[in-house]
Amino acid sequence: MSAPELLAAYFTISGDVYPFGSNEVSPFLFEHRVEAAARAGYKGIGLVHPDLMATKDRLGYAEMNRIMAANGIKHIEFEFLAGWYKSGAERRASDVMRSELFEAAEALNARAVKVAPGLDETEAQADVPRMVDCFGELAIEAAQYGTALTLEIMPFSNVRSIDMARRIVEGAGQANGGLLIDIWHLARSGINYSDIAQIDPRYIGGVELNDADRYPIQPLWLDTIHRRRLPGEGALDVQAFVKAVQATGFKGPWGVEILSESHRRMPLDEMAHRSFDTSAAQFA
């Protein structure tokens, strides 16, 4: 079986930066990342908000679109909107980011905006009715800009189970408001791949591939941003995950998200080619 279209998530080819670090803007120019992704075989890329804004200021959206089209990049997604159900200063900051992400989504025809769960809460602390209402409102607004939302399940958050994730997206009931299923987060949450079948296929908005060591380092947050592995080079059964997702009818594009202190220090083309080749091999 040939590989489906793959999308290089931002940190897969961003170079030596990582989530919530002192600087998330890639040392590699946008056009160079797009070209490297295309040479490797990718059909999509991801951008984080700080890098997106820096690139917009330098190039403008029209030039970004031209660069992607010239290199056969058909898909783009953004991350990572947090605080969307909060109040006060946290919500005000989130609303500013939301406005900028949605404006960019319309200009660049982004397939989705990744949405963060509450990273400072457990599921027991989650205000589920509020999250349902706010996610629904957010999805309605996103639709006005022609884009979708993908809420990510994470083991160190208030959405760390398929049951909780379903309560939010099904409760919101918006066609463009779905879930992001990352193999690392499912594995570290103790979720069996067979449980993916519990999710209504309509709400599977995105899927991400990577791999992990058998035992995580602690705290778990450091494991996710520094110790992920290329697909097939860790202890996870990536092909079983792929088959479980395919059984839902998901067609892609499939994201590839490699957050690794060793991977991010490779030359740009090596990051792109190694991540693409190891991911594509999981569909053989």
List keywords for this structure.
284 residues; alpha/beta; TIM Barrel; eight-stranded parallel beta barrel; 8 strands; 14% strand
Could you explain the architecture of this structure?
This protein is α/β, with parallel strands linked by helices and 284 residues long. The protein has a single domain (6-283), classed as TIM Barrel. Helix content is 41%, strand content 14%. It is built from 10 helices and 8 strands. The protein has helices spanning 30-40, 49-59, 61-70, 88-108, 128-144, 162-172, 183-188, 220-226, 238-246, 268-280, and strands at 6-8, 44-48, 75-81, 112-115, 148-152, 177-182, 204-209, 254-256. Strands 1-2-3-4-5-6-7-8 form an 8-stranded parallel beta barrel, surrounded by 7 helices. Helix 6 links the parallel strand 5 and strand 6 (177-182). The longest helix has 21 residues, at 88-108. The chain is globular, with a radius of gyration of 17 Å.
